[in-house]
Amino acid sequence: MESHNNLSPIGHLDFGSVVHAREPADSPSVIVVCEHASCRIPKELRDLGLNADALRSHIAWDPGALPVAQAMARQMSASLIYGGVSRLVYDCNRPPEADDAMRANSEDFAIPGNASLSDADRKARVEEVYKPFCLELAGMLDRHRETLELMVTIHSFTPVYRGQKRTVELGLLHGEDERFALKMLEKTPADLPLKTRLNEPYSARDGVAHTLDVHAKPRGLLNVMIEIRNDLIETPEQQQAIADDLVHWIENTMSAIQSEGARQ
């Protein structure tokens, strides 16, 4: 089942569909979240003053992340929820009080459309982007609370940041609950062709664990954030291959956790 949250305009602004959700026919044990799935900016915001190249770059979204998340959700019969508006409009993996929820600067780019937001502007984005995303996610979690065991959030990162090449290819990140990330690292497949590290290229200190800590941890869900270097998921073939690897890895990790729990 597919649902879209179409929002009514505030004043002259219509943010459009800011959240999309897909629920499987069967009761899911996993929910996949992709907060930075879209680079869409409502036309009334005039591209936030950015050119086309900037709007297609990693500052506006996580390239390749959504197809990976979709493939994983299909293979695991998982629930899926993903953002429908650029993180430059509002970053749904940040709380309203965070400075980078509505960035005035991202890496080496100034974001003119975010430079002098009024309190009313910021409130409108919170009300029309962040809150609907959170409500849709919370509703999905509550509807399937009897069967859900794990939340996985999927992100991608740029291979070059501020002129520095990143050697890590895949990151396993955690917030307050480290259980699944640590067990997943322990169960890293010997033949996995990716340089994998814990809490790289970001960590909870960078504010990236918001979704995990606000929505998964209070519900007792195991959780992990997965960061994939975006040059490795540029094509459909690459995206499917990464999804295949991650699904196999996640399922083996969950089996190990369940087996250990049964022995206790």
Account of the protein in words:
The chain is an alpha/beta fold. Helices cover 32% and strands 20% of the residues. It has 6 helices and 12 strands. The chain has helices at residues 52-56, 65-76, 119-143, 179-186, 210-216, 236-263, and strands at residues 2-6, 17-22, 30-34, 79-83, 105-106, 109-110, 150-157, 160-161, 164-165, 170-173, 196-198, 222-229. The strands form 3 sheets. An 8-stranded mixed beta sheet has the order 1-2-4-3-7-12-10-11, with helices on both faces. Strands 5-6 form a two-stranded antiparallel sheet. A hairpin with a 2-residue loop joins strand 5 (105-106) and strand 6. It starts with a strand and ends with a helix.
Q: What labels would you give this structure?
A:
alpha/beta; 12 strands; 8-stranded mixed beta sheet; 6 helices; 264 residues; 32% helix
Summed up, what is this model?
32% of the residues lie in helices and 20% in strands. It has helices at residues 52-56, 65-76, 119-143, 179-186, 210-216, 236-263; strands spanning 2-6, 17-22, 30-34, 79-83, 105-106, 109-110, 150-157, 160-161, 164-165, 170-173, 196-198, 222-229.
List the helices and strands and how they pair.
Layout: E1 2-6, E2 17-22, E3 30-34, H1 52-56, H2 65-76, E4 79-83, E5 105-106, E6 109-110, H3 119-143, E7 150-157, E8 160-161, E9 164-165, E10 170-173, H4 179-186, E11 196-198, H5 210-216, E12 222-229, H6 236-263
Parallel strand pairs: 3-4, 3-7, 7-12, 10-11
Antiparallel strand pairs: 1-2, 2-4, 5-6, 8-9, 10-12
